[in-house]
Amino acid sequence: MRRKQIILLVASTAIFFEALDIAILNLAIPLMQRQFQLDAETIQWVQTVYVLFYGGFLVIGGKLCDTAGRKNIFLAGAGLFLCTSLGAGLSNSFIMLTAFRALQGLAAAMVMPSALSIITNTFTEPAERNRSISIFSSFAAIGSGCGLALGGIVATYLGWQWIFFINVPVIALALILAYKYIDKDVVNKQQKFPDIISSMLLTLVIVLLSYVVHNLPGFSKNYQQLLSFIVVIVLALYIFRRRERNQKQPLIDLSLFRSTGTITGNGTTILLGAFFLSYLFLLSLVLQQNMHFSAAHAGLLLFPFSVCSFLVSRYVVPALFKKLTVLQTGILGMCLMVAGALLLMMALLFDHSMPLILLSIACVTGSGMSVCYPSLTSLAIRDIPDAQQGVAAGICTTSYFIGAGLGLSLLALGMQLITAATTVNHFSVLLVGCFALPGVVWLLWVRKKIPPSP
Protein backbone atom coordinates (compact mmCIF):
# COMPACT_ATOMS: atom_id res chain seq x y z
CA MET A 1 0.00 0.00 0.00
CA ARG A 2 2.84 2.40 0.79
CA ARG A 3 4.34 1.75 -2.65
CA LYS A 4 1.02 2.60 -4.34
CA GLN A 5 0.73 5.84 -2.37
CA ILE A 6 4.23 6.86 -3.47
CA ILE A 7 3.38 6.08 -7.10
CA LEU A 8 0.20 8.19 -6.84
CA LEU A 9 2.19 11.06 -5.33
CA VAL A 10 4.84 10.84 -8.06
CA ALA A 11 2.26 10.73 -10.88
CA SER A 12 0.25 13.57 -9.31
CA THR A 13 3.42 15.66 -9.18
CA ALA A 14 3.39 15.53 -12.99
CA ILE A 15 -0.05 17.11 -13.45
CA PHE A 16 0.70 19.54 -10.61
CA PHE A 17 3.75 20.94 -12.41
CA GLU A 18 2.00 20.91 -15.80
CA ALA A 19 -0.81 23.09 -14.39
CA LEU A 20 1.65 25.13 -12.31
CA ASP A 21 3.89 25.83 -15.31
CA ILE A 22 1.09 27.35 -17.38
CA ALA A 23 -0.36 29.42 -14.51
CA ILE A 24 2.90 30.53 -12.90
CA LEU A 25 4.17 32.18 -16.08
CA ASN A 26 1.28 34.63 -16.52
CA LEU A 27 2.23 36.99 -13.69
CA ALA A 28 5.94 36.81 -14.56
CA ILE A 29 5.42 37.80 -18.20
CA PRO A 30 5.52 41.60 -17.58
CA LEU A 31 8.88 41.19 -15.78
CA MET A 32 10.27 39.20 -18.73
CA GLN A 33 8.89 41.84 -21.07
CA ARG A 34 10.79 44.59 -19.29
CA GLN A 35 14.06 42.63 -19.14
CA PHE A 36 14.07 41.66 -22.82
CA GLN A 37 12.52 45.03 -23.85
CA LEU A 38 9.77 43.45 -25.96
CA ASP A 39 6.21 44.49 -26.75
CA ALA A 40 3.20 42.60 -25.39
CA GLU A 41 2.57 40.93 -28.76
CA THR A 42 6.04 39.36 -28.87
CA ILE A 43 6.43 38.26 -25.24
CA GLN A 44 3.29 36.09 -25.47
CA TRP A 45 5.34 33.60 -27.57
CA VAL A 46 6.87 32.36 -24.29
CA GLN A 47 3.45 30.92 -23.47
CA THR A 48 2.31 30.20 -27.04
CA VAL A 49 5.13 27.84 -28.03
CA TYR A 50 4.66 25.84 -24.81
CA VAL A 51 0.95 25.20 -25.33
CA LEU A 52 1.36 24.54 -29.07
CA PHE A 53 4.10 21.95 -28.59
CA TYR A 54 2.18 20.46 -25.68
CA GLY A 55 -1.00 20.16 -27.75
CA GLY A 56 0.79 19.07 -30.92
CA PHE A 57 2.62 16.15 -29.29
CA LEU A 58 0.03 15.07 -26.69
CA VAL A 59 -1.58 12.36 -28.84
CA ILE A 60 1.78 10.87 -29.83
CA GLY A 61 2.86 11.01 -26.18
CA GLY A 62 -0.09 8.84 -25.24
CA LYS A 63 0.60 6.34 -28.02
CA LEU A 64 4.30 6.11 -27.09
CA CYS A 65 3.24 4.87 -23.64
CA ASP A 66 1.80 1.76 -25.29
CA THR A 67 4.81 1.05 -27.48
CA ALA A 68 7.86 2.25 -25.52
CA GLY A 69 6.42 1.70 -22.03
CA ARG A 70 4.68 4.09 -19.65
CA LYS A 71 7.54 4.15 -17.13
CA ASN A 72 10.16 4.77 -19.82
CA ILE A 73 8.15 7.66 -21.30
CA PHE A 74 7.46 9.13 -17.84
CA LEU A 75 11.15 9.07 -16.91
CA ALA A 76 12.20 10.49 -20.29
CA GLY A 77 9.55 13.23 -20.19
CA ALA A 78 10.21 14.20 -16.57
CA GLY A 79 13.97 14.24 -17.21
CA LEU A 80 13.48 16.48 -20.24
CA PHE A 81 11.14 18.76 -18.22
CA LEU A 82 13.80 19.08 -15.52
CA CYS A 83 16.58 19.95 -18.00
CA THR A 84 14.44 22.44 -19.95
CA SER A 85 13.27 24.12 -16.71
CA LEU A 86 16.92 24.64 -15.80
CA GLY A 87 17.69 25.86 -19.32
CA ALA A 88 14.74 28.30 -19.33
CA GLY A 89 15.85 29.77 -16.01
CA LEU A 90 19.42 30.23 -17.28
CA SER A 91 18.34 31.78 -20.60
CA ASN A 92 19.92 35.16 -21.33
CA SER A 93 18.02 35.84 -24.56
CA PHE A 94 14.38 35.71 -25.62
CA ILE A 95 15.08 33.21 -28.43
CA MET A 96 16.87 30.85 -26.04
CA LEU A 97 14.02 31.10 -23.52
CA THR A 98 11.41 30.42 -26.21
CA ALA A 99 13.30 27.36 -27.46
CA PHE A 100 13.44 25.86 -23.97
CA ARG A 101 9.74 26.59 -23.48
CA ALA A 102 8.93 24.69 -26.68
CA LEU A 103 10.90 21.68 -25.42
CA GLN A 104 9.10 21.98 -22.06
CA GLY A 105 5.82 21.61 -23.95
CA LEU A 106 7.15 18.46 -25.64
CA ALA A 107 8.20 17.10 -22.23
CA ALA A 108 4.76 17.82 -20.74
CA ALA A 109 3.14 15.97 -23.65
CA MET A 110 5.18 12.89 -22.68
CA VAL A 111 4.66 13.15 -18.92
CA MET A 112 0.89 13.75 -18.76
CA PRO A 113 -0.46 10.66 -20.58
CA SER A 114 2.21 8.40 -19.07
CA ALA A 115 1.36 9.59 -15.54
CA LEU A 116 -2.34 8.86 -16.06
CA SER A 117 -1.52 5.48 -17.59
CA ILE A 118 0.70 4.62 -14.59
CA ILE A 119 -2.19 5.38 -12.22
CA THR A 120 -4.80 3.38 -14.15
CA ASN A 121 -2.46 0.39 -14.32
CA THR A 122 -1.38 0.62 -10.67
CA PHE A 123 -4.86 0.99 -9.18
CA THR A 124 -6.90 -1.77 -10.80
CA GLU A 125 -9.93 -2.02 -8.49
CA PRO A 126 -12.71 0.34 -9.74
CA ALA A 127 -13.31 2.19 -6.44
CA GLU A 128 -9.58 2.52 -5.78
CA ARG A 129 -8.95 3.70 -9.34
CA ASN A 130 -11.72 6.33 -9.23
CA ARG A 131 -10.39 7.68 -5.94
CA SER A 132 -6.81 7.85 -7.26
CA ILE A 133 -7.88 9.58 -10.49
CA SER A 134 -9.88 12.10 -8.43
CA ILE A 135 -6.78 12.86 -6.33
CA PHE A 136 -4.68 13.05 -9.50
CA SER A 137 -7.11 15.54 -11.09
CA SER A 138 -7.35 17.68 -7.95
CA PHE A 139 -3.60 18.30 -8.19
CA ALA A 140 -4.29 20.22 -11.44
CA ALA A 141 -6.55 22.69 -9.60
CA ILE A 142 -4.00 22.97 -6.79
CA GLY A 143 -1.21 23.54 -9.34
CA SER A 144 -3.15 26.32 -11.09
CA GLY A 145 -3.97 27.98 -7.77
CA CYS A 146 -0.41 27.81 -6.50
CA GLY A 147 0.88 28.97 -9.88
CA LEU A 148 -1.20 32.15 -9.90
CA ALA A 149 -0.02 33.05 -6.40
CA LEU A 150 3.54 31.73 -6.50
CA GLY A 151 4.25 33.18 -9.94
CA GLY A 152 3.84 36.70 -8.66
CA ILE A 153 5.58 36.21 -5.33
CA VAL A 154 8.56 34.24 -6.67
CA ALA A 155 9.06 36.54 -9.67
CA THR A 156 8.88 39.68 -7.50
CA TYR A 157 11.30 38.65 -4.77
CA LEU A 158 13.61 36.15 -6.52
CA GLY A 159 13.35 37.06 -10.21
CA TRP A 160 11.36 35.45 -13.03
CA GLN A 161 14.10 32.83 -13.52
CA TRP A 162 13.05 31.13 -10.29
CA ILE A 163 9.60 30.23 -11.64
CA PHE A 164 11.56 27.64 -13.64
CA PHE A 165 14.22 26.79 -11.06
CA ILE A 166 11.61 25.70 -8.47
CA ASN A 167 10.73 22.78 -10.77
CA VAL A 168 14.20 21.27 -10.62
CA PRO A 169 14.55 19.83 -7.07
CA VAL A 170 10.98 18.49 -6.87
CA ILE A 171 11.12 16.81 -10.30
CA ALA A 172 14.55 15.37 -9.46
CA LEU A 173 13.05 13.74 -6.35
CA ALA A 174 10.06 12.50 -8.38
CA LEU A 175 12.44 10.92 -10.92
CA ILE A 176 14.30 9.03 -8.18
CA LEU A 177 11.06 7.76 -6.63
CA ALA A 178 9.60 6.85 -10.03
CA TYR A 179 12.69 4.86 -11.00
CA LYS A 180 12.61 3.00 -7.67
CA TYR A 181 8.90 2.33 -7.13
CA ILE A 182 7.10 2.21 -10.51
CA ASP A 183 6.93 -1.29 -11.95
CA LYS A 184 9.19 -2.11 -14.88
CA ASP A 185 7.47 -1.84 -18.26
CA VAL A 186 6.29 -4.95 -20.05
CA VAL A 187 6.43 -3.76 -23.65
CA ASN A 188 4.45 -5.54 -26.35
CA LYS A 189 7.02 -5.92 -29.13
CA GLN A 190 4.26 -6.64 -31.65
CA GLN A 191 2.68 -3.23 -30.99
CA LYS A 192 3.30 -0.96 -33.97
CA PHE A 193 5.39 2.13 -33.25
CA PRO A 194 3.27 5.31 -33.56
CA ASP A 195 3.61 7.71 -36.47
CA ILE A 196 5.95 10.34 -35.04
CA ILE A 197 6.41 11.97 -38.46
CA SER A 198 2.69 12.81 -38.65
CA SER A 199 2.85 14.29 -35.15
CA MET A 200 5.82 16.48 -36.13
CA LEU A 201 4.00 17.60 -39.29
CA LEU A 202 0.90 18.55 -37.25
CA THR A 203 2.98 20.53 -34.74
CA LEU A 204 4.90 22.25 -37.56
CA VAL A 205 1.60 23.33 -39.15
CA ILE A 206 0.10 24.85 -35.99
CA VAL A 207 3.35 26.62 -34.97
CA LEU A 208 3.89 28.12 -38.45
CA LEU A 209 0.21 29.05 -38.70
CA SER A 210 0.45 30.90 -35.38
CA TYR A 211 3.61 32.67 -36.56
CA VAL A 212 1.99 33.75 -39.85
CA VAL A 213 -1.13 35.04 -38.05
CA HIS A 214 1.03 36.92 -35.54
CA ASN A 215 3.08 38.63 -38.27
CA LEU A 216 0.30 39.53 -40.72
CA PRO A 217 0.49 43.29 -39.88
CA GLY A 218 4.03 43.35 -41.28
CA PHE A 219 3.14 41.36 -44.41
CA SER A 220 4.39 44.04 -46.81
CA LYS A 221 7.86 43.96 -45.20
CA ASN A 222 8.16 40.19 -44.71
CA TYR A 223 5.91 38.91 -47.49
CA GLN A 224 8.56 36.56 -48.93
CA GLN A 225 9.12 34.80 -45.59
CA LEU A 226 5.41 34.61 -44.77
CA LEU A 227 4.48 33.32 -48.23
CA SER A 228 7.16 30.64 -47.98
CA PHE A 229 5.75 29.59 -44.58
CA ILE A 230 2.25 29.41 -46.08
CA VAL A 231 3.61 27.10 -48.81
CA VAL A 232 5.25 24.92 -46.14
CA ILE A 233 1.95 24.80 -44.20
CA VAL A 234 -0.02 23.67 -47.27
CA LEU A 235 2.63 21.09 -48.19
CA ALA A 236 2.82 19.73 -44.63
CA LEU A 237 -0.99 19.44 -44.47
CA TYR A 238 -1.02 17.56 -47.78
CA ILE A 239 1.66 15.10 -46.61
CA PHE A 240 -0.10 14.71 -43.23
CA ARG A 241 -3.41 13.93 -44.94
CA ARG A 242 -1.82 11.34 -47.24
CA ARG A 243 0.00 9.65 -44.37
CA GLU A 244 -3.18 9.50 -42.28
CA ARG A 245 -5.08 7.85 -45.14
CA ASN A 246 -2.38 5.20 -45.65
CA GLN A 247 -1.74 4.38 -41.96
CA LYS A 248 -3.50 1.37 -40.42
CA GLN A 249 -3.32 3.18 -37.08
CA PRO A 250 -3.57 6.92 -37.94
CA LEU A 251 -2.43 9.56 -35.47
CA ILE A 252 -5.95 11.05 -35.38
CA ASP A 253 -8.79 8.75 -36.38
CA LEU A 254 -11.11 11.09 -38.27
CA SER A 255 -13.90 8.50 -38.10
CA LEU A 256 -14.34 9.54 -34.46
CA PHE A 257 -15.71 12.89 -35.64
CA ARG A 258 -19.03 11.58 -36.89
CA SER A 259 -21.46 12.81 -34.24
CA THR A 260 -22.60 16.38 -33.72
CA GLY A 261 -21.70 16.11 -30.04
CA THR A 262 -18.08 15.14 -30.73
CA ILE A 263 -17.60 17.91 -33.30
CA THR A 264 -19.29 20.48 -31.05
CA GLY A 265 -17.37 19.41 -27.94
CA ASN A 266 -13.98 19.63 -29.64
CA GLY A 267 -14.80 22.79 -31.58
CA THR A 268 -16.02 24.63 -28.49
CA THR A 269 -12.99 23.37 -26.56
CA ILE A 270 -10.75 25.08 -29.13
CA LEU A 271 -12.63 28.34 -28.50
CA LEU A 272 -12.38 27.79 -24.72
CA GLY A 273 -8.59 27.38 -24.96
CA ALA A 274 -8.32 30.50 -27.14
CA PHE A 275 -10.35 32.50 -24.62
CA PHE A 276 -8.94 31.32 -21.29
CA LEU A 277 -5.20 31.74 -21.81
CA SER A 278 -5.75 35.02 -23.68
CA TYR A 279 -7.87 36.25 -20.76
CA LEU A 280 -5.16 35.34 -18.22
CA PHE A 281 -2.54 37.05 -20.40
CA LEU A 282 -4.57 40.29 -20.58
CA LEU A 283 -5.50 40.13 -16.89
CA SER A 284 -1.85 39.96 -15.84
CA LEU A 285 -1.09 43.03 -17.99
CA VAL A 286 -4.13 44.93 -16.66
CA LEU A 287 -3.15 44.33 -13.04
CA GLN A 288 0.57 45.06 -13.45
CA GLN A 289 0.81 47.59 -16.28
CA ASN A 290 -2.49 49.44 -16.11
CA MET A 291 -3.04 49.33 -12.33
CA HIS A 292 0.66 49.11 -11.32
CA PHE A 293 0.26 46.14 -8.98
CA SER A 294 3.42 44.23 -8.17
CA ALA A 295 3.49 40.64 -9.44
CA ALA A 296 3.24 39.45 -5.82
CA HIS A 297 0.19 41.64 -5.14
CA ALA A 298 -1.50 40.42 -8.33
CA GLY A 299 -0.79 36.80 -7.41
CA LEU A 300 -2.29 37.15 -3.96
CA LEU A 301 -5.35 38.82 -5.50
CA LEU A 302 -5.92 35.86 -7.85
CA PHE A 303 -5.20 33.06 -5.38
CA PRO A 304 -8.62 33.00 -3.61
CA PHE A 305 -10.34 32.55 -6.97
CA SER A 306 -8.19 29.48 -7.68
CA VAL A 307 -9.34 28.02 -4.37
CA CYS A 308 -12.91 28.87 -5.42
CA SER A 309 -12.31 27.03 -8.71
CA PHE A 310 -11.25 23.92 -6.81
CA LEU A 311 -14.39 24.07 -4.64
CA VAL A 312 -16.63 24.55 -7.68
CA SER A 313 -14.99 21.54 -9.37
CA ARG A 314 -15.38 19.42 -6.26
CA TYR A 315 -18.94 20.30 -5.16
CA VAL A 316 -20.85 22.49 -7.65
CA VAL A 317 -20.09 20.75 -10.97
CA PRO A 318 -21.29 17.27 -9.81
CA ALA A 319 -24.53 18.91 -8.62
CA LEU A 320 -24.95 20.67 -11.98
CA PHE A 321 -24.54 17.39 -13.85
CA LYS A 322 -27.41 15.96 -11.79
CA LYS A 323 -29.71 18.92 -12.51
CA LEU A 324 -28.73 19.84 -16.09
CA THR A 325 -27.68 18.02 -19.25
CA VAL A 326 -24.03 18.09 -20.30
CA LEU A 327 -24.91 20.54 -23.10
CA GLN A 328 -26.79 22.88 -20.74
CA THR A 329 -23.86 22.83 -18.32
CA GLY A 330 -21.51 23.72 -21.19
CA ILE A 331 -23.77 26.64 -22.20
CA LEU A 332 -23.76 27.91 -18.60
CA GLY A 333 -19.95 27.69 -18.46
CA MET A 334 -19.40 29.53 -21.74
CA CYS A 335 -21.92 32.23 -20.68
CA LEU A 336 -19.83 32.77 -17.55
CA MET A 337 -16.77 33.27 -19.79
CA VAL A 338 -18.59 35.86 -21.93
CA ALA A 339 -19.84 37.60 -18.77
CA GLY A 340 -16.27 37.68 -17.42
CA ALA A 341 -15.01 39.38 -20.59
CA LEU A 342 -17.85 41.94 -20.51
CA LEU A 343 -17.20 42.73 -16.84
CA LEU A 344 -13.48 43.25 -17.48
CA MET A 345 -14.26 45.49 -20.45
CA MET A 346 -16.66 47.54 -18.30
CA ALA A 347 -14.03 47.74 -15.55
CA LEU A 348 -11.58 49.32 -18.00
CA LEU A 349 -14.22 51.73 -19.26
CA PHE A 350 -15.03 52.80 -15.67
CA ASP A 351 -11.47 53.67 -14.66
CA HIS A 352 -10.37 50.15 -13.66
CA SER A 353 -13.20 49.53 -11.21
CA MET A 354 -11.92 46.91 -8.73
CA PRO A 355 -15.39 45.41 -7.92
CA LEU A 356 -15.99 44.79 -11.64
CA ILE A 357 -12.51 43.24 -12.05
CA LEU A 358 -13.13 40.92 -9.09
CA LEU A 359 -16.51 39.89 -10.52
CA SER A 360 -14.85 39.22 -13.87
CA ILE A 361 -12.20 36.99 -12.26
CA ALA A 362 -14.91 35.18 -10.29
CA CYS A 363 -16.82 34.42 -13.50
CA VAL A 364 -13.79 33.15 -15.45
CA THR A 365 -11.15 31.62 -13.15
CA GLY A 366 -13.37 31.24 -10.08
CA SER A 367 -16.17 29.26 -11.71
CA GLY A 368 -16.43 29.36 -15.51
CA MET A 369 -13.39 27.23 -16.31
CA SER A 370 -14.37 24.61 -13.72
CA VAL A 371 -17.81 24.32 -15.33
CA CYS A 372 -16.72 24.50 -18.99
CA TYR A 373 -13.86 22.02 -19.20
CA PRO A 374 -15.51 18.87 -17.76
CA SER A 375 -18.81 19.52 -19.56
CA LEU A 376 -17.19 20.07 -22.96
CA THR A 377 -14.93 17.05 -22.50
CA SER A 378 -17.95 14.91 -21.59
CA LEU A 379 -19.77 16.22 -24.67
CA ALA A 380 -16.78 15.41 -26.88
CA ILE A 381 -16.46 11.78 -25.75
CA ARG A 382 -20.06 10.79 -24.90
CA ASP A 383 -20.78 9.29 -28.38
CA ILE A 384 -17.39 7.55 -28.64
CA PRO A 385 -17.14 3.75 -28.06
CA ASP A 386 -15.63 2.80 -24.68
CA ALA A 387 -12.54 1.29 -26.31
CA GLN A 388 -11.67 4.65 -27.94
CA GLN A 389 -12.60 7.10 -25.19
CA GLY A 390 -9.00 7.46 -24.03
CA VAL A 391 -7.91 8.57 -27.50
CA ALA A 392 -10.97 10.85 -27.79
CA ALA A 393 -10.15 12.51 -24.45
CA GLY A 394 -6.56 13.04 -25.65
CA ILE A 395 -7.82 14.69 -28.84
CA CYS A 396 -10.09 16.96 -26.77
CA THR A 397 -7.14 18.04 -24.61
CA THR A 398 -5.11 18.61 -27.78
CA SER A 399 -7.93 20.80 -29.13
CA TYR A 400 -7.78 22.94 -25.99
CA PHE A 401 -4.04 23.60 -26.23
CA ILE A 402 -4.07 24.20 -29.98
CA GLY A 403 -6.88 26.70 -29.42
CA ALA A 404 -4.87 28.33 -26.63
CA GLY A 405 -1.82 28.81 -28.85
CA LEU A 406 -3.77 30.11 -31.84
CA GLY A 407 -5.86 32.34 -29.57
CA LEU A 408 -2.77 34.07 -28.19
CA SER A 409 -1.51 34.63 -31.74
CA LEU A 410 -4.85 36.06 -32.87
CA LEU A 411 -4.90 38.31 -29.81
CA ALA A 412 -1.41 39.57 -30.69
CA LEU A 413 -2.58 40.23 -34.27
CA GLY A 414 -5.64 42.11 -33.04
CA MET A 415 -3.63 44.19 -30.56
CA GLN A 416 -1.29 45.24 -33.35
CA LEU A 417 -4.08 46.12 -35.79
CA ILE A 418 -6.66 47.69 -33.46
CA THR A 419 -5.01 48.79 -30.23
CA ALA A 420 -2.20 51.30 -30.48
CA ALA A 421 -1.95 51.84 -26.72
CA THR A 422 0.96 50.38 -24.75
CA THR A 423 -1.43 49.22 -22.02
CA VAL A 424 -4.42 46.90 -22.37
CA ASN A 425 -7.69 48.66 -23.22
CA HIS A 426 -11.30 47.63 -23.70
CA PHE A 427 -10.75 46.78 -27.39
CA SER A 428 -8.23 44.09 -26.39
CA VAL A 429 -10.74 42.55 -23.99
CA LEU A 430 -13.47 42.74 -26.64
CA LEU A 431 -11.25 40.66 -28.94
CA VAL A 432 -10.87 38.00 -26.24
CA GLY A 433 -14.62 38.01 -25.62
CA CYS A 434 -15.09 37.27 -29.33
CA PHE A 435 -13.39 33.89 -28.74
CA ALA A 436 -16.01 32.82 -26.18
CA LEU A 437 -19.18 34.25 -27.75
CA PRO A 438 -19.17 31.90 -30.81
CA GLY A 439 -18.96 29.00 -28.35
CA VAL A 440 -22.25 30.07 -26.71
CA VAL A 441 -23.89 30.53 -30.12
CA TRP A 442 -22.64 27.13 -31.34
CA LEU A 443 -23.91 25.28 -28.25
CA LEU A 444 -27.30 27.00 -28.46
CA TRP A 445 -27.54 26.24 -32.18
CA VAL A 446 -27.02 22.47 -31.76
CA ARG A 447 -29.04 22.04 -28.53
CA LYS A 448 -31.99 20.46 -30.40
CA LYS A 449 -29.72 18.21 -32.49
CA ILE A 450 -28.02 16.58 -29.50
CA PRO A 451 -30.27 14.31 -27.40
CA PRO A 452 -29.84 14.31 -23.60
CA SER A 453 -27.52 11.68 -22.16
CA PRO A 454 -29.31 8.45 -21.27
Automatic annotation (TrEMBL):
Bilayer topology annotation: Multi-pass membrane protein
Ranges for domain Major facilitator superfamily (MFS) profile: 7-451
Name this polypeptide is given: Major facilitator superfamily (MFS) profile domain-containing protein
Bilayer-crossing regions: 7-31, 43-61, 73-96, 102-123, 135-156, 162-181, 193-211, 223-240, 261-282, 294-317, 329-350, 356-379, 391-415, 427-446
InterPro entries: MFS (IPR011701), MFS_dom (IPR020846), MFS_trans_sf (IPR036259)
Organism expressing this protein natively: Niastella koreensis
PROSITE patterns, sorted: MFS (PS50850)
Pfam family, one: MFS_1
Entry keyword set: Membrane, Transmembrane, Transmembrane helix, Transport
Cellular compartment(s): Membrane
